[in-house]
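worker-03 picked up job from queue 'complexes'. Input manifest follows; two sequence lines, order preserved.
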Amino acid sequence: MADWTSEQILALAPDASSAKAGSGLASPGNWVTRGRHGQAVWGECTGSGSKPYQTQIDLAEPAFRCSCPSRKFPCKHGLGLFLMLAAAPATFAEDTPPAWVTEWLASRTARAEKQAAKAEAPAEKSPEALAKEAAAQAKRAAARTARVAAGLDELDLWLRDLVRHGLAAVQGQPHGFWEGMAARMVDAQAPGVARMVREMAGIPMSGDGWPDRLADRLGRLYLLLEGFRRLETLPPDEQADIRTMIGWTAAQEEIAAGESVRDRWLVLGQRVQQEEMLRAQRTWLRGQTTGRFALLLAFAHGGQPLDMSLLPGAALEADLCFWPSAYPLRALVKTRHSELESLEGLSGYPTVDAAVDAGSEALSRHPWLEPFPLVLEGVRPCFQEGQWLVRDAAGAGLPLSPSFTEGWTLLAVSGGAPVTLCGEWDGRRLFPLSVWAGGAFHALASS
Amino acid sequence: MAWQELVQTALRGTGQGPAAAPQGDGRLGSVLQGLEGGEPERVLLSQLAVTALWQRAGWTPAPAGGEPPAPCEAETLPVCSPAAASHLAALFTTRYRDLLPEWLGAAAAAGVRVPYRVLPALLDQGRQQRELRPAIRKVMDRRGAWLAAQNPAWSYVVGEGEDDETLWQTGSRETRQVYLERLRAEDRVRARDRIVEAWGAEGARERAAFLAALGTALGPDDEPLLEQALDDRSKEVRTVAADLLSRLPSSALVRRMIERAAPLLSIAGDSLQATLPSECTKEMLRDGIEPKPQWEDKKLGQRGWWLSQMLRTIPPSHWSESWKRPPAQLVEIAVKSDWATLLVEAWSQAALRHRDVEWAWAILNARAEKAFQAGDLSDVLPPDRLEAFVLGAIKANGGVGGKDHNHPVLGLINRCHHPWSAPFTRAVLDAFRRELETAQPHLGYQIGSTLRGLARFIPPELAGEAEQGWPTEAKAWEHASQGESEMIQTLHFRKAMLEAFRDKAG
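worker-03 finished. Artifact:
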């Protein structure tokens, strides 16, 4: 797991032109100096200016830094340096790092310590300070609840208007119709609801079957509104789910302070989705002993890097803390207890029926849960009438998502034999993320 | 069902008037019933909320239908090493895609197969680039064939001889031409039979296009059909037939040309006499001789043009054999004669058409200062001769560059698409280095471009040497450096790529 392949490195590139430029720089002729020391790798690259650019990588994450003026992350120099390291590690001699390397590493350690200290800090405060903090927090929460309630009341009115005029009329509405209400939800501090409204904007134009799809999303949104209306009457876990769907989640520090679950966690798959200026990364884990699933969520704005330290196929001993929910999935890694290893096998539901049942059961507890992690054993991919699906030993079929483009790759690694497939289930289609076939793990590209 | 009714109501809108209550069974029915009786919009939205969840949670899988594909048999070849696999993956995503043939060749030679996950991309590439197909077949092993059998887009793998009857019967002219060309490469006789079958019923353009397919794997047994086509009513068809027949040294057409031309040329000692043909007979027209010269050929005059065409058809070895003189001598004599232009141009064309190495060599060397316009003729030479010729041309030219933005020697070097020998590489790179010291920026840029393009042919073991000794202070250097550094990177990549096959850790 420690070795990065050029494929994985190129996957870090923020866009195709960076990947191309990066591979162009991956040759000794461009680098005046280079070296490594433990987890730090550095080099000086000749650029268009008079002084070479100083590029460095902290392999632990990996994190990049370069003195070039590019805004991209990682820049082409970072990519080139990394590619060179992967291709010819012997050419990087162990050496004492120059000042500009030790400086950056020191500042990184300092920042990490500060953050760790911050997490520990609450124990230091006096009872009065804590009480004052709690009061201020309660006041903020009350203000937010009021704002959200007002916003959702508006949304309620808007939805009733919508169904009075009918979905057929909605087809002719301009983009601003939806965008306006979504923006209003953001103002009301309900970004999750804003996302749900935006999701509906594209449906009227999406071709055959759009009324069904739009009605489904409408129903789901209205259920959330009704849930919020009755919030106080519901059990705490369900309250937590409704708040999360609205976009009101507990902070990481709060969750990290709670109970943790220790296990050997297998990284099953990862998916990155682009939403406007934001990239959302979902990493699915499963505990080897507990069998529990966990979802790590990460976001990056613009060209910022995403955390690539947990790649599918890895396994690590760790403590995870879960956000409260009627069906807990979202988690964070509190403490790692081991280095990354490679996972040695996957286990899952033996039939499509069993898997779908599990999904339905989850919905009964958390009605807005999407997507749901599935691992299916003993399934075979097939291509029928222009669509991909997987079939189990009993002959039941699970359709794969049309946005999944790696069907032939899946078929190639399976060779017609039953495989164990891991993917995201939305109640209708499965989006495969990885597969265990022929005694090996294959992550499938996510797009 | 309840959901359909609700969606219909939602489409119409509650403003249109009361809608019937949706009918549901069991639990769903009673929940929906319980939601009735409020404001119509609220009722609809609530019922949608419940039923949408019901639908989603209640989804049941249908039987898959059909049969899954039978599992693939075990492989016969070991997989390539992880390093080789990652190079292959890099070939598809970076600018090294041109190196794919080299990778495939090295893998085939090493007797290894590709990893499964690369098969779709590789098979797709083979669909677009026909020349890769034989190599792909060697490295895809059973899994590749199994996979290809299931995707019509990859049917080329399972056998090009697979008769796509419908393509031939109903396709467009281009489709049918491609089909014929493919068939001709696999089974030349069958392809010809197809052409013969279709001959009577096809239009002129079709006949010409199909006849042209005989150009692949042309052989003496094609002569009868071609000779017959010389009498075709379409000019286009006759032109194709004459051109193909002239490529068959044993054909009657070539014999006729020799009979016509032999009396017109004579040699005595060091002098060559030529007489121009007095008329353009019907037989000459039939054999493809154009009566009126066009463009530059006008300078030969009409009768000179006829002689030139005859000479272009005749294998030049005929002259050296019948006069018992080496080609170099004949070319020298021709250059000194009154007919230099006509003879040398016609013999060039003949050498090219018949791929005569000795004649090509003789002509290229005789026209030393004009050799750079040699263009195609140098393609006839085998690698060692070509290298010798190019080095000679560099020396005669005093370097790589030319005058007035015209660099024929550079153009010649650009055409060397064979694996270069180490001495040739060193000599050419040195010539570039010297040139760059004094060159103008635009030549620097051209040299850089050339270097980039030649990276595929230079032996990768020379990568280290190739990096050294460039005149980085020269004015032209910054324009060449981009190309040079890309060349070096490519060489390093190729070196690593080929080394990955040496330790087979598959």
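worker-03 released lock.
The first helix of chain B runs from residue 2 to 12.
DSSP finds 27 helices and two strands in chain B.
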